[in-house]
Write the structure tokens for this entry.
Amino acid sequence: GQQRLLQVLKIGEEFGEAAQAVIGATGTNPRKGTSHTWDDVTAEVCDVIVTSMVTLHRLGVPDPAAVFTEHLKQAAARTFAAREA
């Protein structure tokens, strides 16, 4: 149980790194200025995605890619339906 919890929290850590990269890319930290590029942000967001997929696997999801694909289809359907409304 604790390993699952820690793996989910790891997603939050990776998100924090992505947020730090955004702050660095926009230069909004007065102490550091511009410390990152938008390529850094992209890399950090990719790390969030990878960590999330690993988390699905470690939660015991038999086919994380299939579960994600189905979830993505449903999210896209909701988005398209909202646009048509």
About this structure: The CA atoms of residues 57 and 63 lie 7 Å apart. The two ends are 42 Å apart (CA to CA). The chain is about 80% helix and 0% strand. The helical segments are 2-26, 38-58, 64-84.
